[in-house]
Amino acid sequence: MILVFRILVLSLMAGFAGVACAAGLTIEITKGSVTAVPIAVVPFAQTGSIGNVKLTSVVNSDLAGSGLFKTLAEDDMLTKPSTPESVNFKDWQVLGQDYMVIGQVDGSGGNYNVQFYLYNVHNGELLIGYRLTAGPNDLRRAAHHISDLIYEKLTGRKGAFNTRIAYVTSSQKGAGKQFMLQVADSDGFNPRTIFESPEPIMAPNWSPDGSKIAYVSFHSKHSEIFVQTLATGQRESVSSYPGINGAPAFSPDGGSLAITLSKDGSPDVYVLNLSGRSLTRLTTGLSIDTEPNWSADGSTIVFTSDQGGKPQLYTIPATGGKVSRLTFQGDYNARGRFSADGKSIAMVTSNGGGDYRIAVMDLATRTVNVISDGRLDDSPSFAPNGSMVLFSANKGGQSVLFVGSTDGATQQKLAFESGEVREPDWGP
Amino acid sequence: MRKYGLSFTLALLLHIALISMFCFSFQSNPEMVKGQPVPEIIDATMLDDTKIQAEADRLKQKEENKRQAEQQEQQELQNARKAEEQKLQQAKKQRQMEEQQAQEAAENRKQEALAEQNKKEQLAQQRKEEEKKLEEIKEKRAVEEKKAKDLAEKQRLAELELQKQAEKQKQQEAAEREEKIKEQKQAEELKLKQQADQAKKQAEAKKLEQDKKLAEQKKADEEKRQESAEQAEAKAKAEKDKKAAESAEKAKAEKDKKAAESAEKAKAEKEKLAAEKAEQEKKAAADKAKADAEKAKAEKEKQAAEAAAKAKAEKDRLAAEKAEKAEKEKQAAIAAAEKAEKEKQAAEAAAAAKAQADAQAQANAQAISSALQGIKNRVQNAWTRPMSASQGLKCTIQVKLLPNGDVMDAVVVVSSGDAVFDRSAENAVRKATPLPVPQDLKLFNQEFRVFQFLFNPN
């Protein structure tokens, strides 16, 4: 028995030695550039009528806007293949590309039949082969969906291109103003007005399932919190206490709203149960406590408070309890928003001088990284995948929306027809 | 209620059917592609608020498509029939064509036959002409051959004569050579004889000298003995004489005492006689001693001379031996020097070889290290680290290279567990092609044909 065991051990050792010998020369690579990945999206071959939407432009814009990809301009392409048989990977290697996308769109049947392929240029490996059908008005969504698939395959994280954003626009109408709550694609296209009023609309917030939006309206001349179902357009007033009714934030389970009320004196954070309308007060005292936001696990609420003299971020357990200060850098830190993975918080930060910028704090290390250029940036909101931050900025006296990567590497201005755009919230 | 029971049930069923349809349409959200690369194509449908419409459209479309497809099929069938008819017609045409071709072929054959006859005639004429030409050529060749033979014989004769002469010369030369060799041999023999004689002579001389020496020694010994004997005799005589003198004196004194005068004369006479006798004896002894001394001196001189000669001979011999020895030593020294030189050369060669080998090894090591650095730099420059990758990832890529450094294959052998990270590493290696491998093929085969990269950015 012992002999057998010994023989086994010896043979195992011999095996390991053999493996060790076979290893031979090994070169260790310790450095690499953290740059955008080059990808070529070849214009898809089109049959039938496509309208004025160019699918690959949308995909290019999505990928480049994420900051993780460097797309290839159409003019720089040597060939424009649309079928797997006509691809010569050497052409794309020469152009320094890592990946390439080819495909076809057929719009001859009313619907769009889209077929595309994602290849690794260096070994010709087919990473995605995909066919999808989109309705007459869904070509942009189809493009975003393609971007999402590519993004997820190449970064290992879910894409957020096929998501929607909510925001408030304001424009002159006659003597007064007209405020509109709108929902659009994440790149600002396909805007749709869901509520409109001559009185201000503020602080839209998506429910976790994307079916509802909570917001503050002064339609009745005083602040009131509504929850509106998108599919039906039906809206419901959930908080109309005296004083301030502000800053609603859905809990991760969608069953509660964290809100700010001043019915008991100074503004404080409360949790409103949507089904029973019961109210739980979280903060007390004479300080202003507002702008609550839930962590993804629902355990913690971050809010802005001036209890230290200047506005700073604090956290409190969602069921109430001990308040702890989160931010210590700068004169001003407000509008805290948790990322979906709960690892970071986006905020508005200022060191004085009226310069407000968006920053992202890593909760593990408490390091704060400023990602926007200022001077009046506001209302940060994470993309569902945590890779981008949507925020409002004031450029040339006009309020516009930007999407920036969380490392500050890229920023992309969202396209809107006109008017002031502010208070954005990135939905699922 | 009962009145409308049937219609109610039908309405209910219709609603259920509609609801189930909705349910199905709701489920058909496009599924994300996850994980491994998908060689197959995934079907998906984009659905929005317009999905029902879309679904309906799609169904309509489908039906239309079906109808179209059926129509197409029918058309295709018709087309197929047409095609077959066309094929038949084509076949007919082909047959006609073939018949025409056959006729043409027959005509062609006829013409060909005529042409062949003509050709044959022409060929026959040509053959005749060629035969004539051949005969002429044969005659010419015969003449030429004769000429060539004559020339060849002449040449042969000439060559034979030359050979004979050469042989004579050779023989003469050989004879001369033999004579020379004989002479040389004789001379050598003479030399050898002379040398032998000389050696004999020398040996005899030596022997003689030795004999002489021995004889002289014997003589000297004898002489010594004689001398000592003589000396002893002389002594004895002297003592006798002394005793005798004393006894004589005694006797004289006694005689003086006993008989004075008479004895005086006798005594004087006796004394005179004794004295004379003693003197004579003394003289003789002295002469003898003198002669002996002279003899001894002569012998000594002789001995000295002999010794000198001997010494000289010995010296010469020694000198000769010395010279010989020196010569031997010289030769030995030369041999040693040669040996040393050879050894030195060998050592130098070995050292050079070793140095070369060392230099080669060093050069190889240098080439390897510089190649390693070059390859590392190239791959690091080519590597785009994924931004999304988490910390602590590492993976091993095995590459196969062509001798020019082109990356033939790169595969992940130890995965990081993150497909994106692995792919970025694999792509970095592929992107870095060609890698700067050493020019030396042996070195390339040893180290760089297949090796591994460890991507470890931490």
Topology:
The complex is a heterodimer of chains A (428) and B (458).
Chain A: H1 2-23, E1 26-29, E2 37-41, E3 45-48, H2 55-65, E4 69-71, H3 89-94, E5 99-109, E6 111-120, E7 126-134, H4 139-155, E8 164-173, E9 176-185, E10 192-197, E11 201-206, E12 212-217, E13 224-229, E14 235-239, E15 245-250, E16 256-261, E17 268-273, E18 279-281, E19 289-294, E20 300-305, E21 312-317, E22 324-325, E23 332-338, E24 344-350, E25 356-362, E26 367-370, E27 378-382, E28 388-395, E29 398-405, E30 411-413, E31 420-426
Parallel strand pairs in A: 2-4, 2-5, 3-5
Antiparallel strand pairs in A: 5-6, 6-7, 8-9, 8-31, 9-10, 11-12, 12-13, 13-14, 15-16, 16-17, 17-18, 19-20, 20-21, 21-22, 23-24, 24-25, 25-26, 27-28, 28-29, 29-30
Chain B: H1 5-27, E1 42-45, H2 51-258, H3 261-382, E2 395-401, E3 407-414, H4 419-431, H5 441-448, E4 450-455
Antiparallel strand pairs in B: 2-3, 2-4
